[in-house]
Design goal:
Layout (H helix, E strand, L loop, with lengths): L9 H20 L3 E2 L2 E5 L2 E7 H6 L6 E5 L5 E2 L7 H14 L1 H19 L2 H13 L3 H19 L8 H11 L4 H17 L8 H7 L8 H28 L10 H4 L14 H30 L6 H19 L4 H14 L1 H19 L3 H11 L5 H18 L3 H18 L4 H13 L9 H9 L4 H28 L4
Antiparallel strand pairs: 1-5, 2-3, 2-4
Helix pairs in contact: 1-15, 3-15, 4-13, 4-14, 5-6, 5-12, 6-8, 6-10, 7-8, 8-10, 8-19, 9-18, 12-13, 15-18, 16-18, 17-18, 17-19, 17-21, 18-19, 19-21
């Protein structure tokens, strides 16, 4: 499994460090302010307790903290100095230790599964089975990548597969753009339509104080819808190139790109051990879905007795170690792979620490509510639909500067989650707007290091890629805005 190279993340690190410094400076210049908080009953939104009432009732479950509109006031300034800046990343990590543990367990578990070679073997099986049916092959592999990206938050793990697919798709008269698109568009859509992704939806829902993985069935529906759109677009371009090579965006260098990957690229053979490993992964995913559905049903009728979060963590371990055992991997090797997975995702720890430092400084400097107040004031007089689409646009712009999904969630959700309360947008839709804004633009913005690395592997310049992907980017963004407005109109929360 390719490691996340720190050198590929210098831009993001530098940007976050600059934002930490700017946040500290802002505590000296931006007026401090505060909203009153209350607790709303999720089963009866008209029932709101103030903080004293909530404590007097023993902090009952089924309530979510909200910002109370109309209660903003300026308070005494509390500027943050150099010592506070140095301590902020460590204080921030202490507040999100569960997220860190969650990310490391998922990363380690997937590294074990990845080490079995089952995912590569499955791709090889699809290639061998459907190599004479190009459209079906493209659709199958794209949806496979989308599903794994949606479930586990995978992206960089798919990068090497562009070299595996290139000679196969070349035999079908497709160009190098198609090979890159199968990987990037599939994974990008899966990341945007996250279902169990621990790096985006889990973090965002935790900050928004929603039940972990609530709204799962709607997200699965969105994953299918957007995947079909992406598959249609890539297949449409592939058919054009196959029927008329001069229509290829790479037509002027068509003779050169075939040397990027040799025809002798080995495609892993699909063996019984791979089948057993994939069956184990499938059973773990099914069990996770059943736990989520059962927990949701219990919450509809009262307090859920199911420790759903702990069970999900255990199931991720079952998926990793179970797949390893099913594939005949020695325990010692599984532990090495698990440790490698933790090391692979360790740079995410730095991103989380820096993004949390921004939040800690803004909270201690008492300026988050001031930012929230002026942001909400700018949305006064507009409908909740316009506010929601504005949040989506804001997240898309933020993704240019902060390509990391987990860092962006920790950076923006503390502001957008309470903002949703002030402008009558349900927290579930605020999370979805974050997902769409963070996900779709990953396959367009040149600040995404993984995009540039993938294009570099097959010698595609970003400008040529932009010519191909821009129409799809517009389609996806428009459809995302429509779906947000539709779900808001249907009252999805």
């Amino acid at each position: 499994m390719p490691a996340i190279r720190i050198s590929n993340m210098f831009f993001t690190f530098g940007l976050l460090i600059a934002m930490v410094i700017l946040s500290a400076i802002a505590t000296w210049t931006v007026p401090a302010g505060s909203y009153d908080r209350g607790y709303v009953n999720l089963d009866n939104p008209d029932s709101v307790l103030d903080q004293q009432q909530y404590r007097d009732q023993g902090e009952p479950e089924g309530f979510r903290e909200v910002v109370l509109a109309g209660t903003y006031r300026q308070i005494e300034q509390n500027p943050q100095g150099p010592v506070a800046v140095l301590l902020a990343p460590f204080r921030g990590l202490l507040g999100v230790w569960f997220i860190v543990v969650f990310i490391f367990i998922v990363g380690g578990s997937f590294a074990i599964f990845h080490g079995t070679g089952s995912l590569g073997a499955l791709v090889g099986w699809l290639v061998n089975r459907y190599s004479d049916r190009g459209s079906l092959l493209i659709g199958s592999i794209m949806f496979l990548f989308a599903a794994f990206a949606s479930l586990f938050g995978l992206f960089e793990e798919f990068v090497p597969y562009v070299l595996v697919l290139l000679p196969i798709l070349n035999r079908l008269k497709y160009d190098v753009i198609v090979a890159a698109a199968v990987v990037l568009v599939g994974a990008g859509i899966g990341f945007a339509c996250a279902t169990l992704n621990p790096f985006t939806v889990a973090i965002a829902q935790d900050i928004a104080r929603l039940s972990l993985y609530s709204g799962l069935l709607v997200r699965f529906g969105l994953l299918i819808l957007f995947s079909l759109v992406g598959i249609w677009y890539v297949n449409r371009y592939a058919r054009q190139v196959a029927s008329d090579p001069s229509r290829s965006i790479m037509a002027d260098i068509r003779a050169n790109y075939t040397t990027v990957a040799e025809e002798s690229q080995n495609v892993l053979q699909f063996e019984p051990r791979h089948r057993r490993a994939l069956q184990t992964v499938a059973s773990g995913i099914i069990l996770m879905l059943l736990v989520t559905i059962a927990d949701l049903i219990w919450r509809l009728v009262g307090k859920s007795p199911i420790p759903a979060t702990e069970i999900r963590l255990a199931l991720f371990l079952y998926i990793g170690f179970g797949a390893g055992m099913a594939a005949g991997v020695r325990f010692g090797q599984m532990m090495k792979d698990f440790w490698h997975g933790i090391v692979t995702f360790s740079p995410a720890l730095i991103l989380i620490a820096l993004s949390q430092a921004i939040r800690v400084l803004a909270e201690d400097g008492r300026i988050i509510d001031t930012v929230l107040f002026y942001f909400s004031e700018s949305l006064q007089g507009v409908s909740p639909t316009v506010s929601l689409i504005g949040m989506y646009g804001f997240q898309t712009v933020m993704n240019f500067f902060v390509p990391s999904g987990s860092a962006q969630a920790l950076l923006t959700m503390p502001i957008l989650a309470p903002l949703g309360t002030l402008v009558d947008v349900p927290a579930q839709l605020v999370v979805l707007a974050f997902q769409f804004g963070d996900g779709f633009s990953n396959i367009f913005f040149p600040t995404n290091g993984l995009l540039i690395v993938t294009l570099g592997l097959v010698n595609i310049s970003w400008l040529r890629w932009a010519r191909f992907i821009l129409p799809l980017q517009i389609i996806l963004m428009a459809l995302a805005a429509v779906m947000l407005a539709l779900l808001l109109g249907l009252g999805w929360s």
